[in-house]
Amino acid sequence: MIKSLTPLISAMCLMAGIACSATLDEVKARGVLTCGVSIGLTGFAVPDADGVYQGFDAAICKAVAAAVLGDGAKVRYVPTTMTDAFAALTSGRVDLLARNVSWTFLHDADLSLDFVAVSYYDGQGFMVKKDLGVSSARELDGARICLQTGTSTEANLTDYFKANSIKYSPVLVAEEAEAQSQFLGGTCDAMTTDVSVLAALRATFLRPDDYVILPEIISKEPLGPVVRHGDNAWGDIVRWTYFALLAAEEKGITQDNIDEVAMATKDPEVRRMLGLQGDMGLMLGLDPDWAKRAIAASGNYAEIFESNIGITTPVKLARGLNALWTQGGLQYAPPFR
């Protein structure tokens, strides 16, 4: 129903000069946000001992739920694979995908989806056992490599080895869980997929220090929240909720000090973002405190990154390209004005 009515409702709202969203209305009526996440990816989206999802992707879902519903706990997480994520979104089974798939031309234009932001700049890499004795992907000539079939990973691998005039033996599997099993079992010498996935999988190994992620990155994989095409107002809500997390990091606003900042700040941009002046919330169809709640749900972008997948966690990912633009990275929030 959402899919069929969304374009009509959006057009009517545009003519009336107001912001409204079929998806927002459905989420509010349901009282819970349905969020598509990867299946059991450590550091990104996994249920804890109490069954509550935690991780980088889960935190993005919580921020949107807090902004829209007033409570970051009002999320139903829907585990999806790379093959069924798009269908889950277009059918209305989920309201957004947190960070499951790469922003590419075909994913954007051909599938009629909207990638609203890049929450994680990633790339395809390789993981090997340390005792294999290689330090570069260029040393994998003749290696057996596990990878998921039917994805861009396969095409990227073919292009990379052809460009470097080296050969490999593909070990094709249907799902990444099978690739992991084959890799650990010794069926293949290396495993290839997005580096974030490799790092998350390595964190679950019995002896993670026995495995090395090689330095080569052979593709661009921009990952981030995805919504259905046609509901621009919903896309704006998800987009600016994410940007609020980035802006909070840049402005030094944290989960702990946000109330103090709200009471004392004289920064006009912060005041607009936190609903202390202006009507930004109204423009999104939300109340004035939407961004404040989003930040308070799990913290700013840095807090979310470092507590779930950062260097001090088992996943051990450096900020790299995901540092703020002021720190040499690519993460950049447009101004709240």
Features:
2 domains, D-Maltodextrin-Binding Protein, domain 2, 337 residues, 14 strands, single chain, five-stranded mixed β-sheet, alpha/beta, 14 helices
Account of the 3D structure:
The chain is an alpha/beta fold. The chain has 2 domains: 2-121 and 223-327, Periplasmic binding protein-like II (D-Maltodextrin-Binding Protein, domain 2, 3-Layer(aba) Sandwich); 124-219, 3-Layer(aba) Sandwich (D-Maltodextrin-Binding Protein, domain 2), CATH 3.40.190. It has 14 helices and 14 strands. The protein has helices spanning 2-16, 22-30, 56-69, 85-90, 105-110, 152-163, 176-184, 195-202, 232-251, 258-264, 268-273, 280-283, 290-298, 301-308; strands at 33-38, 46-47, 53-54, 75-80, 96-97, 113-115, 120-122, 124-129, 143-148, 168-173, 190-194, 211-213, 221-223, 226-228. The protein has a 5-stranded mixed β-sheet with strand order 10-9-11-8-12, with helices on both faces. It has a 3-stranded parallel β-sheet with strand order 4-1-5. Strands 2-3 form a two-stranded antiparallel ribbon. Helix 6 links the parallel strand 9 and strand 10 (168-173). Helix 3 packs across helix 9 (232-251), helix 3 runs antiparallel to helix 13 and helix 9 crosses helix 13 (290-298). The chain is globular, with a radius of gyration of 21 Å.
